Amino acid sequence: PIKETKSIEEEVDETPETNNNEKILIDKKYFQRNRNWRETNAKLLIIATENNKGKKI
Q1: Global pTM value
Q2: I want to staple 31 with a disulfide (CB 3.0 to 4.6 A). Which of 2, 26, 44, 53 is the partner?
Q3: Quick one: pLDDT at residue 55?
């Protein structure tokens, strides 16, 4: 079961900055705070890896 989390609007209130200090344009509903960014990507990678097991790439 998936744990209940904050709504997207509550969770998302900032975007990472690029080296030239311009905001990265990301659709906010797909963006989580920087501190959760790597963890989220790791989970997605694991899911993708599991889904691709036994399939030729």
Answers
A1: 0.27
A2: 26
A3: 63
Task: Return d(Cα 34, Cα 14) in angstroms, integer.
Answer: 8
Cα–Cα distance measured from residue 12 to residue 8, given in angstroms and rounded to the nearest whole number: 6
H and E: helices and strands count for the chain: 2, 0
* 13-28 tens-digit pLDDT: 455 554 444 555 555 5
List the beta bridge partners of residue 23: 17
The residues facing 17 across adjacent strands are 23
Residue 21's pLDDT is 45
Is residue 23 helix, strand or coil?
Answer: strand
